[in-house]
Amino acid sequence: MKLKNANVLITGGASGIGKIMGRMALEKGAKALIIWDVNQEAIEATAAEFASRGRVYIYKVDITNSLLVASTYQQIKQECGGVDILINCAGIVRGNKTFDQQTEQDIRLTLEVNTIAPMIITKEILPDMLRRNSGHICNIASAGGMLSNPKMSVYAASKWAAIGWSDSVRIELQEMKSNVHVTTIAPYFINTGMFNGVKSPLLPIQKPEPTAKKIICAIERNQTFRGIPFGFHFIRFWQAILPIRVFDFVFGTVFGIYHAMDNFTGRTK
Ligand SMILES: NC(=O)c1ccc[n+]([C@@H]2O[C@H](COP(=O)([O-])OP(=O)(O)OC[C@H]3O[C@@H](n4cnc5c(N)ncnc54)[C@H](O)[C@@H]3O)[C@@H](O)[C@H]2O)c1
User: pLDDT band at residue 268, thresholds of 50, 70 and 90?
Assistant: First the structure.
């Protein structure tokens, strides 16, 4: 779906690739950019930065609060007239602990933000898209949703679930012959700060700007799935044909992905 003249809602739109995609949406002539984020300071700074570029609506929303999600969507309908493109981008990762060290609180929060919230938000907005027979939902998952990387088991679980859910909804809409489309995105590590400290000796850590551009392009082309970099489209192929221990050796040891999280610090603030 084209971004020109569209109302674009981006969760987590006050930082990282969400913020860059918001700027790109305005550059492409979006009618309105709607940002939902939990970080008040960052939303205000983003709104001030983008003010001269177009109509920007900011809402402080903790997306794990489904009542707030529902009431803010009603507010958006009043103030902006609805949502044409939803980008579920907000996400979190909690530390680099092995699973035995994880707390129940972090497990629940990670799944709430990365998996359940995109479902609840989509459930709120999709019926209106279906009524109009127009719309696009883009879910930002992760390559961690295809690779069982150690020291991020809960994050990986949240993104595996996000990919399965997102692609299933895509097929449902396709079966309905609906003009509402779903794009699932699975990026490798991106240099936004969220995964500060990770090391990737062979595969390059992705740059935020080109990554955001690839996602916007995937939305505009109604692409079903986009691995970033493109080679990640073949992960499942390699998983299918290689014995698991050979796959572990190639991706874990040769590419060094299984030790990527060893020096993870994440955002310090
Ligand atoms: N950075 C990476 O290496 C990487 C790799 C693959 C996938 N991803 C995914 O891409 C998406 C964006 O990542 P990023 O690197 O731009 O992250 P980021 O940390 O820069 O931005 C995430 C935003 O989400 C917001 N957020 C967090 N919890 C929220 C909540 N409960 N309610 C509302 N907003 C909330 C944060 O305030 C922040 O503004 C995430 O879903 C992430 O899992 C990131």
Answer: confident
Q: Which two tokens stand for residue 248?
A: 């572990």
Q: Where are the beta strands (DSSP E) in the chain?
A: 7-11, 32-37, 56-60, 85-88, 135-140, 180-187, 225-228
Q: Which domains, from first to last, does the chain contain?
A: 7-259 (3.40.50.720)
User: Which residue in 182, 85, 95, 94 sits closest to 135, CA to CA?
Assistant: 85
- At 112 the pLDDT is 98
Which one of 9, 10, 11, 15 would you pick to mutate in the ligand 1 pocket, going by the greatest count of ligand atoms within 8 A of its CB? 15
Cβ neighbours for 87, distance < 8 A, ≥ 6 positions apart: 8, 9, 10, 11, 13, 18, 21, 138, 140, 215, 219
Is 155 catalytic? The answer is: yes
Pocket of ligand 1 (CB under 6 A): 11-12, 14-18, 37-39, 42, 61-64, 89-92, 113, 140, 142, 187, 189-190, 192-195
Q: Assign 138 to helix, strand or coil.
A: strand
Residues 233-242 have a mean pLDDT of 95
> Mind listing the pLDDT tens digit for each residue in 25-46?
999 999 999 999 999 999 999 9
